[in-house]
Amino acid sequence: MAPYEPVYIPVPADWSIPPLHFQVHDSASFGSITFFDNVKPPALMLEAVLHVLKALYVPESVPRHVRSITLILRPMPGVAHTTSNTLDDAHKEIHLSSQYVAKNAGRARDEIYGVIVHEMVHCWQFDGGGTCPGGLIEGIADWVRLKAGFAPPHWSRTSPPEKWDAGYEQTAFFLSFIEDKYGSGTVVKLNESMRDGRKWDEGVFEGVTGRGVEVLWGEYRRTFGRTSGGNGGGGGGEPAVPTHGV
């Protein structure tokens, strides 16, 4: 397969893009070879950053606290996770499993981009000083992945769970529904409400859309011919933690 030729997205002059670094721990493995056959690390990282910043911020609100981001391709279980350097929280690390890349060789380019966009969100998003439900943290990350056009083929809207903050693509589809019905910028406002450590408050949904999250979740579920049921209120997810993964 010929290497993917990325379309470079212009970087707004007033955005502060931190240094982007790349490490590979097993360059001769099938997963790493597949990675290099499908993506170019500098373009992958820059495009992922820009997808995130364009989705969640306007130029005036782009966070300035991230000092560097390092993508590390290495053998490990799972898919990927994001954490901070042990010496400085402002230095972020995204760890991507080379085994996972190998298992997805058939659609490697789109899967790599999708996973890295998701993880890149965790480098930049606000979490209310750790008070935001974990399901919303992951849902926002997958919403950005969905918006960027990298939803994998197994994602489905056809069976919504009982809770709005179930996380990942389930919450991402809910957020997409809200954006479509109540206007672009809804997710931006949800994220911005947690800036500077302000604690998460599910009342922000009503402030942004005029409807509480339980009402919104009921509306969403009724689009599938189902009643709202379950725990429609926020707070059902696990608290956000410094390390996130998919």
From TrEMBL:
Residues 226-246 are annotated as: Disordered. Residues 227-238 have a biased composition (Gly residues). Coiled coil: none annotated. InterPro entries: Uncharacterised_BSP. This is Plant basic secretory protein. It comes from Sistotremastrum suecicum HHB10207 ss-3.
